[in-house]
Write a structure and sequence with these properties.
By secondary structure, the protein is of the alpha+beta class. Helices cover 22% and strands 34% of the residues.
């Protein structure tokens, strides 16, 4: 029954598939304390890692309360530490490492299904991909794990599909909930299989997924199911089948100041087709150059500015800290600079970052404790195995590529071993406004 309890906790905590300003519960003197006071992107990253370590049975939405604090304490207890509910820097690193190992163990990767939905897939557990009726299907060789994505266009309604699925004679439902724009159903399918189904309404249709797996695999699948549900985005701003992303009218990214004269390096894709480019708090910027091979772009702001250029460091390492400014919708309209642990994925493309950073972190600075600034996070589209699927990933471009771009455009950079505090002073929010 553990998975049923986990689903109940998960669903009870689930917002109506919308980012809302979290209400921190850890307060002192009217102010949030501990992790509740951290930027939203950091809270979400910690929650996502706690899901993978099996300590949190809830979605990573950034709303920090007793359940999240309890999950931190559970992690600290297993590690033999003091149960404070607040991670020390060493504990945060250990949590990130354990979560990354858990993701690697199941072969976690993010895909955009042909239905248009984005979700995470445990590729080692369900490596066989094929095309279903309206979405992709991923299955284990023995068939004891299956993930199927579905799409129901109008005139289908959320209420009608919900009632139809509840009447499935092959299922024994142990939990169900329906809200105006989503529903969740879970329980037993047959004598020895569990199922979890989630659907969301939007854009005149429904998109969702169903996971069915052998009850004997509960220990592994319990956290995988919550992770899939937490990462699922029914209507991302991306097209399927590797087609270009539908560009947002206003897009936010991170830029890195690389000269006192106003030169800033950022993500090339984030400033494509911009009618206006603005650096928040500074002013308008002009596109100077771009490098399609690396995915970098160079922009420049003019006029006297008090800018703090970031020294360029050494070669990329496998683990580092990303310093960037998450999209306003990720941090409830704020513009806080965040520093989050990151690493190069242990398999596949050696430059892909794991976990995928939050929106707005395209252009973020990668800081290594020993080498300083070692690279830039940039967006990359790549085709992955499966039925007409495409993955959206963020990769690390090394500092050498940054140097090459600056040299080619006669920008004089500085060298050194910048740390996180210096990076916080050097990153800026880049805003692209399109027609």
């Amino acid at each position: 029954m553990r998975i049923v309890i986990a689903f109940a906790l998960f669903c009870a905590a689930m917002p109506a598939f919308a980012q809302t300003a979290p209400k921190p519960q850890a307060v002192q003197g009217g102010k949030a304390t501990g992790h509740a006071a951290a930027p939203l992107a950091e809270r979400m990253a910690i929650q996502a890692d706690l899901i993978w370590t099996g300590d949190l049975n809830s979605i990573a939405d950034g709303a920090w309360g007793e359940r999240s604090t309890g999950a931190v304490k559970a992690f600290q207890k297993r590690k033999g530490g003091k149960e404070t509910g607040v991670l020390s820097p060493d504990e945060r690193s250990a949590l990130a490492a354990d979560a990354a190992a858990a993701r690697a163990e199941v072969g976690w990767r993010t895909v955009i299904d042909e239905s248009g939905a984005r979700l995470g897939i445990p590729n080692k557990l369900a490596p066989r991909a094929r095309k279903g009726k309206t979405g992709g299907i991923w299955q284990s060789p023995s068939g004891d794990v299956q993930i199927e994505v579905f799409r129901e266009p109008a005139p289908a309604t959320l209420a009608a599909i919900y009632q139809q699925e509840r009447k499935n004679p092959a299922r024994k439902i142990t939990y169900s909930v329906r809200r105006p724009d989503f529903f969740v159903i879970s329980g037993m399918q047959g004598a020895n299989r569990r199922f979890y189904m989630r659907a969301q309404a939007g854009a005149g249709e429904l998109r969702g997924f169903t996971i069915v797996y052998a009850a004997a695999k509960e220990d592994v699948m319990a956290r995988v199911v919550v992770a899939v549900a937490s990462d699922f985005t029914a209507f991302p701003a991306a097209a399927a089948d590797g087609r270009p992303l539908e560009k947002r009218k206003v897009e936010y990214a991170t830029g890195i100041v690389v000269s006192a004269a106003g030169d800033i390096v950022t993500d090339r894709k984030a400033i494509e087709d911009c009618q206006v480019i603005v650096v928040a708090g500074i002013g308008s910027a002009a596109r100077v150059a771009e490098d399609s091979a690396s995915g970098l772009a160079l922009i420049r702001v003019y006029g006297p500015q008090k800018l703090a250029p970031l020294p360029l460091g050494g070669a990329p390492r496998r683990e580092f800290t990303l310093v960037g400014i998450a999209d306003p919708h990720v941090q409830a309209g704020n513009a806080s600079t965040s520093a989050v642990p990151s690493r190069v994925a242990p398999s596949g493309d050696t430059s892909v970052l794991d976990p995928t950073p939050a929106q707005g972190f395209a252009g973020a600075a990668a800081i290594d404790a020993e080498a300083g600034f070692v690279g830039v996070a940039v967006q990359k589209a790549q085709v992955v195995a499966g039925p007409a699927t495409a993955a959206r990933s963020v990769t690390l471009v090394g500092s050498d590529a940054v140097r090459n771009l600056l040299t080619a455009n006669n920008v004089v950079s500085i060298s050194g071993q910048a740390q996180i505090d210096a990076a916080r002073q050097s990153v800026v929010r880049v805003i692209c406004v399109r027609k």
